[in-house]
Design brief:
The chain has 7 helices and 2 strands. By secondary structure, it is mostly helical.
Length: 178
């Protein structure tokens, strides 16, 4: 597994953050924070990460909720926000549909499906989740198996994303010919 270089020093991180803050408006910074959310976050947390006021974060988050980019969760802790994974999956598929022809997308799907079938045969399972890791395996063997399973899962996600891009492209083509 590749090693990452040393941690950047605090000065570099501060300079990068200042450049980001100066080059992006509040809306863009909040959108960037939303894209990176892994867990629900309060408006105050989003505001801190986006370097803006909590009120500005709430205002923009409300707009992102209305657009479906983010979901608002209400619980005993108050309002928290989490990125809408369905929106981000659609967005990635839409970008593929815009950049590639249907034929190119079909070729990629065929190649990815071939790779997925090879993993199915190698592991004797329908999906990566169906694979039981051997208990007697060494750490290195487990790491190798997990890496392969991760690649297989990524391929399956790419197949789904490309198939959605094909559906989007076909839908758009139907609109153009109607």
């Amino acid at each position: 597994m590749p090693e990452f270089g040393p941690e950047p020093d605090e000065t570099t991180l501060t300079e990068e953050h200042e450049d980001w803050t100066e080059s992006q408006d509040t809306h863009e910074r909040i959108r960037g924070v939303i894209a990176g959310l892994q867990e629900p976050a309060t408006a105050a947390t989003v505001a801190e990460r986006a370097t803006c006021s909590t009120n500005a974060a709430r205002k923009h988050l409300g707009k992102f909720v209305a657009l479906g980019v983010v979901r608002q969760l209400e619980d005993t802790q108050g309002a928290r926000y989490v990125r809408n994974e369905a929106y981000f999956r659609w967005r990635r598929a839409n970008e593929l549909a815009e950049r590639h022809t249907i034929e190119e997308l079909l070729d990629v799907v065929a190649d990815l499906e071939t790779q997925a079938e090879q993993f199915q045969q190698q592991f004797g399972a329908a999906t990566p989740a169906d694979v039981a890791l051997p208990e007697e395996a060494t750490h290195a063997e487990l790491e190798e198996q997990l890496e392969k399973l991760s690649r297989w899962a990524t391929i399956r996600e790419a197949i789904d994303r490309h198939k959605e891009a094909i559906r989007i492209s076909r839908h758009e083509s139907d609109k153009l010919t109607a």
